[in-house]
Amino acid sequence: MRLVLLSGGSGKRLWPLSNDARSKQFLKVLKDEEGNKVSMVQRVWGQLEETGLADNSIIATSTSQVDMIKTQLGQGVHIVTEPERRDTFPAIALAAVYLHSVQGCSLEEVVGMLPVDPYVENQFFDRIHDLEDALLKSGAELALMGVTPTYPSAKYGYIIPKEDTDEHYLTVDYFKEKPTEKQAEALIEKNALWNCGVFAFRLGYIIDLLEAKGYPTDYEKLLKSYHLLAKNSFDYEVVEKAQHIISLSYDGYWKDLGTWNTLTEEMGVEITGKGILGKGIENSYIVNELDIPVTLLGLNDVVVAASPDGILVTDKDSSTKVKEYVDGLNGRPMYEERRWGWYRVLEYTKYAEGNQVLIKRLGINAGKNFSYQMHYKRSEVWTIVKGEGILVFNDQLRHVRAGDVIHIPLASKHTLRATTDMEIIEVQTGSELIEEDIYRATDEWDEIEAICKVKLTINQ
């Protein structure tokens, strides 16, 4: 059995800490058994390793999340990257084609899909193993995992089974999305399960479906025509049209940490970052990524979350509505983690004359480097404030350290490799300060050094 972890969401439900580049699953607000801060994706990947599933797992994600995944899970994790975000059906189709045409999986292979952020015990993953047997024995097109409800929640979708069903699995009758609490009570009386977003299928089922729709089933070809795939959910394109769906029940602990309300219940601490809670306050939390303190007085059942992207103050029950208020905030992410380290935006100004200025503080981890790149719409000035490293400028190398100031004009090739942990202040100035104005030659330091050696040989 192969597993695909879906990690393509934009992360607005935990704004302002999460954004398009740093979705909720990357926030280090949980704790492992040793008390270290970990993210949801680190916790889940660790559980996959403990239950022997990691070696047969891949992660399907968007381009903006690749660096974050590799930073938190390591360079060796297998990733399938969407060229653009197009909902869950295209993402799952691309992952299925990758398994078939790149990894050579048989059409009879059972593939399980699951969110990258469930908060569960290890026995949840043991139960996933059972999906394979149930799918093959039943002859169903899809096998789902459903969680036995502990209360009539209006936040989750429900799987409603037929009355006459097999003792080993349930035959699905229909689905109900986010009912009222009264409706949920009636559904639970019918043995309905919470839909936790975990399901499995034979690989050939999806490959056949793609061929019937006229889509290529070669990975490279599908990448090139990815923009032609229907921008729909997997539920709409596949689940609603399937004739035979079964479900297994899971009776253990499960929680969706998709809102501040549920996440704070599992954080283990009331204050993260600089903060002060007044005496006698109950069930309130401060999560602060800023360097200024946050003080909360006289308010129970409140979450205050602060980051460079913004500040949220909400009572816990209303925190589920954050996404609908901030969906229109599509500005530049103010903080990101990258494969080489991190950056934080200090200031961004767009002048009436048309020129723009962006000031960042960047941290480069020892042994890491930027890509070898150039820009045509901006110049840069780097001021090194911590550490030392190697600068490559137009195919020439030189040593740099704290106190050095480096000017990078338009169309100049440049990169920086940290020999110790480094921090720099970067000032970008130009007509358009966008990601598309980065032209990368290579990310690999060995290749960058080879380019410089060739240049040196030619000059000699």
From TrEMBL:
It comes from the Bacteria. Residues 4-266 form the Nucleotidyl transferase domain. This is Cupin domain-containing protein. GO terms for biological process: GDP-mannose biosynthetic process; polysaccharide metabolic process. Gene3D superfamilies: Jelly Rolls, Spore Coat Polysaccharide Biosynthesis Protein SpsA, Chain A. It comes from Planococcus salinus. Residues 338-442 form the Mannose-6-phosphate isomerase type II C-terminal domain. Residues 286-329 form the MannoseP isomerase/GMP-like beta-helix domain. GO terms for molecular function: mannose-1-phosphate guanylyltransferase (GTP) activity.
